[in-house]
Structure formats: structure tokens, C-alpha cells
Amino acid sequence: MTTVEQAEIDQQKFDIEDFLKNLTRLPGIYKMLNDKDTIVYIGKAKNLKNRVSSYFRKGAASPKQQVMVAKIKRIEVTVTHTEGEALLLESQLIKKHKPRYNICLRDDKSYPFIYISSEQQFPQITAHRGAKKKKGNYYGPYPSAGAVRETLKQLQKIFPVRQCEDSYYKNRSRPCLQHQIERCTAPCVGLISPEDYREDVNNTRLFLEGKGSLLIDKLVQNMDKLVTDLEFERAATVRDQISQLRTILEKNYVHGTRGDVDIVACATKAGIACVQIFFIRNGQNLGNKTFFPKITDEYAPENILQAFIPQYYLDKNIPYELIVSHKPEETDLLIEVLAAHAGHAVTISPHVRSDRAKWLQMANVNVENALLTKLSDKQGVYARFLSLQEELGCQEVPKRLECFDISHTQGDYTVASCVVFDREGPVKSSYRRFNIAGITPGDDYAAIYQAVSRRFKRLVKGEHEAPDILFIDGGKGQVNEAEKALAELQVNNVMIVGVSKGPDRKAGMEKMILPGQEQPIDVTPGASGLLLIQHIRDEAHRFAITGHRARRGKAKKESVLETIAGLGPKRRQILLKQFGGMQGISRAGVDALCSIDGISRQLAQRIYDTFHHQDE
Predict the structure, then answer these.
(1) What confidence tens digit (pLDDT) does each residue in 228-249 have?
(2) Which residue, of 218, 388, 420, 535, has the fewest CB within 10 Å?
(3) Residue of 378, 381, 375, 388 lying closest to 471 (CA atoms)
(4) Nearest residue to 249 via CA among 202, 209, 289, 198
(5) What SS3 state is found at 419?
(6) How far apart are CA 11 and CA 114, in angstroms?
């Protein structure tokens, strides 16, 4: 290599120390570029020098960040007046360039509205997407064109306002099919007066503005007037309108919610992130939209919402409130930027009560279900099984996996879980839990041994299919106990793999431990087989925790009653059912207690005294 070539190589290296010497401490954004001049990451900072330097401190970055930093050949910065301006610019640039290492929203579509024109004698109602240039009223946004079509279809059955294009409307000489099926009153050929048509349009506006109760009151008054005037046929039509409206409003109305609210829920699992938004406009639920942001590392939901919210909302109409499943990292900054962009106050609410809490719970259930559906995609799951075969060196593609985990509270109420996956994903009908007893509290090794023994005794009896791989959430000790249990039962055709948590218990850094091997086996970081292992391990952990909580809760519920002499299991269950739980029993008097079959006055007195001895 010549001196000139070496000089060129040295010139290509990125000198971070020299770069940081001249870097400002003002707010702004920074773009990291690779040797092909492609942007690999965009970030914003309140203090550019502090933020950029943090990537180059030893031990400060994650393994994936270290890979990213190694690819940097150049950094460009843009200084802004405020951190809020930096957030806006960062959001715009991420959406434009979609850098590899950013959390990227991959949905850039504008959202549809319902539009009612205002410059015509017989206004048209239709779907609209794009710039709002035409005069009239816009209602929405709706999560999809399908949601708009469904709403228009419902409205057309109740208030038959025309939905045809102006070019079609102006060239009619006779009523179209929509009039024949009673979905339009044919204003094109003068079969309805402007006054009556305007009434239908005004009623439609009231519905879309969320004033359903006011609209029904108005229609009821109109029906009463028609009955008084002996116009029974028209009164029956209004009655049908009221009935249809009540059905729609009961289905779509969000109790206790006024104005424009979006409910934003996020969930992550096995390297996949899912965000769902429920759109509440004028008290009505307009539906929901699902997103799967691109992520290259394991991010917490708080981080994902921090990146998602500005990318999604800063080119759309922003509602007055965002109810979120997790509090974003920089909530105050987001509120400031969103409010400035929207021109009105915006709140971000991570903690809500009453009806709002119910709707947030619904959003959380939906986002978890969408994520599990994504993870359980048949093609995706099979690809992960193929990767798993390669990573673990199996001779054939595994067909069935089982994973065990242990959960307890300081050794009490220990529960072991066993979850099962096949090539189509989780097999929930085969999940099992084991209440662990007869061991030293907190002895996870003994718990694993007992659970595996009990599970595989049933296998030996032919009660269920054998797994190809048995995963154990734990290290060498747990793996050795599982191996011991299988050896005693002479089960020799099952591969045992321990899944040991990596440094700082960080996902993606797990160690795979095989029986008899001193060192963990190497697994390719980011391999889809590793994602499958994470998924089954997380599912076993979830299943164990829910079982443990149920056992602990049951024990606490029954523990006080178990101390009462003469009160056996059957009577305890009767009491709990009759009084609706422990709180009801604790409030009951002696007379109420002894009115229950099998409870004598003496026993009732003992029960009463148990709950009130502190007051004596």
C-alpha cells in the first residue's frame, strides 16, 4: 500500500474527537451517514454536543448502537432555536429518509373525511381525502375508507341525502336506482322540496357532530307533531329513523367522552412493535387503525410512542386529548409541540379513570391481540422454526416446542408454567400450570425438577405428544434438574435448552445453554430463531405470573376463613358466594351470617369476632 493510498484511507476515517471540538451545545438535529453517504440515523437534542458524544463513550451504547456507530463516516447537524423545533424537524426528516436505525412509521397515507358541500341548493355528502379546498363541512378523520363507506351507508338509510357526483346529478332526467330502493329522495328531478331536503342535511350534520341525543329529541318532537296532524305514514318513517339512530348510537357512542380524543396503545414482543389508535370524534368511536413501526432494537413502549406520536400527528389534525397506554419519555415537549402545531391545547393522558380507563383497556386488549396475530402468522412462524433448526444444529426442523418457567413471591405460592408452540404458533389448549409443593421455599431448581417430572410422567403414559425441544427459563442449574427428571423417566429423545438472561436482562442478549457444555452456544443476534425463543420464553413467563397471582390471590382470600374452627371448605365457598367475597363477609352481622344454611349462631359469632376482634 502506497503512502498516498494510506493517506486516503486515513482521510476517510471519521475523527469524532475533532468533530466534537467544534460541535455546538445548542439544540438541533444530527444526521449520521455511512460510507455510501446514506443516512443511517437521525436524532434530536437539547444539547447537540452532549447527545452526540454519548454515542462514543465506552460501554454507553447497546451492541446494536455500537454496530451503527462503527458505520458512521460523517455527521451533519442542523441547529434550531428550540428543542421543539428540533423535534418537528426530526419527525419530518425521519418520515422522508426512513433511516435504518430509527423507529419509523411506515404509513404516510392521508386519512379520509366525510364532506358535506355548502354552496349548492341540494348539497352532496361524500368521502374526501386530501386538501380541504372546497367550501363545506368536513367530519373525521376516519381510520379507513371502509369506515367512511360504512358510515355513509348507515346515514343513507336514515337520512337519504344524495351521494352522487355533481356531473351525474346535473344530467338526470329521471330518478336513479338509489331513489327506487329509498336511499335518495331524488332532488335531481324535483321530487323533494329544498326545505325538506335541507332538514335531512341538517339532521345528518347533527349526527356527524356527535349530537345524537339532541337529534333524537328533535325527531321525537317532529313525530309527535305529525301524529297530531294525522300524518301517520310520515310519522312512521320518523319513528323508524329514531329506532335506527338509537341502534347506531348505542353501538358507537363513547360514554363520558366529549370532543376529539385519540386512544393510542402500544405493545412489543419478540422484536416486533404494534401501535393502535382508536379515533373518538364528538363522542363517537369511528374505529381504529393498526401500525407496526419498523424497529431495529428492543425498545420499550414509552420509547416507541415518543417516536411514533410526532411522526404520525404532525401532518394531521390533532385532537384535544391523546390517551396513551404508556407515558412517552418527553411528554411535556410533545405537548408543547403538538399544541403549537394544532393551534389549540393538547393533553397527553397516560393515567385515566372511569369510562376512559375502560376504553384504554379495550385498546390495550386490541393491540396485544394484533401483535399476537402478527407473531402467529403461519409463514413467519415457520421461517422462525427453520432459523431455530439452523441456530441449534437440529437434524430436522422442530415440530413442537415446550418451555417451562417458575414464578413465586419470596418462595411462597410457587407456580410452574408449561407453554407449547408448534409450527402455527402457540397451542394454548396444551398449556399447563403446576402448583409446586413440598420444596424449600425459593428453590427454583427443585421447582423445575418437580414440574418437568409431573409433565413428562403424563407423556410416558401417552397423554400428550413429546416436544422436539424443551426450553427452560434459567441457567445451568435449572437445565441440570430438567435433564435429571427426564433421565429418571427414561425420556431420551428431547433436546433441552436453557435460556439464560443476558447482561442487564436485556432482550436479544440471551445465552443458550445445553446440558454437559461449559460454554453457552453462539446464536446469531437478530436471527428469527432467536425471536421465536424470546416469544416462547415471554409467553411461559406471562403464563407463570398469571397463575402465581391467581394462586396468591386465592390463598389470601381464604386464609382468614381457614383460621376459623368449624368452617370447612364447602362452607367457606358458600359464604364467599352468598356475600360476594371477603368484603361482604367482613361487613355482615351475626344474624345475616347464621341465616346461611350450615352456619350456626355460635359459628356465625366466631366468624364475626374474627373480623371485628380489633374493635373489641
Answers:
(1) 888 888 788 888 877 777 766 6
(2) 218
(3) 388
(4) 209
(5) strand
(6) 58
Distances in Å between the Cα of 37 and the Cα atoms of 72, 138, 383, 543 are 9, 43, 33, 47
Grid cell locating 424: 402455527
Model pTM greater than 0.90? no
Alpha-carbon distance 596 to 49, whole Å? 74
Residue 264's CB is within 10 A of a number of other CB atoms, namely 24
Can you tell me the distance from the alpha carbon of 609 to that of 615, in angstroms, rounded to the nearest whole number?
Answer: 9
DSSP character string of 438-460: SS-TT-HHHHHHHHHHHHHHHHH
Choose among 410, 552, 429, 549: nearest CA to 418: 429
Q: Contact, 384 vs 392, CB < 8 A?
A: no
pLDDT of residue 249: 61
Grid coordinates of 322: 391523546
CB 573 within 8 A of CB 598: no
pLDDT for 7 beyond 60 = no
- How far apart (Å, rounded) are the C-alpha atoms in residues 611 and 616? 10
pLDDT at 6 over 50: no
Three state DSSP letters for 346-400: CEEECCCCHHHHHHHHHHHHHHHHHHHHHHCCHHHHHHHHHHHHHHHCCCCCCCE
Q: What is the helix (H) or strand (E) element at residue 238, kind and residue range? A: helix 232-252
What whole-number distance in Å separates Cα of residue 283 and Cα of residue 253? 6
Tell me the pLDDT band of 419, cut-offs 50, 70 and 90. very high
Percent of the chain with pLDDT over 90: 20
| pLDDT score at 2 | 46
In this structure, how many other beta carbons lie within 10 angstroms of the beta carbon of residue 514? 17
Burial 77-102, CB ≥16 within 10 A → b, else e: bbebebbbbbbbbbbbbbbebebebb
Sign of the dihedral defined by the CA atoms of residues 487, 489, 493, 497, in that order: negative
Helix (H, G, I), strand (E, B) or coil at 25: coil
Amino acid making up residue 28: G
At 163 the three-state DSSP class reads coil
Mean pLDDT for the stretch of residues 14-26: 82
For β-strands 74-79 and 432-435, DSSP reports them as unpaired
How far is residue 257's CA from residue 368's CA, in Å, rounded to a whole number?
24
Q: How far apart are CA 171 and CA 169, in angstroms?
A: 6
For residue 40 the three cell numbers come to 443511517
* pLDDT, greater one: 577 or 440: 440
Give the separation between CA 413 and CA 70, rounded to whole angstroms: 48
**pLDDT, tens only, 301-325:** 999 999 999 988 887 888 889 999 9
H-run or E-run covering 94: helix 83-97
Strand arrangement of the beta sheet that strand 28-33 belongs to: 39-45, 28-33, 74-79
How far, CA to CA in Å, does 252 sit from each of 106, 239, 362, 584? 29, 20, 14, 36
Which of 408, 405, 485 has the alpha carbon at shortest distance from 453? Answer: 485
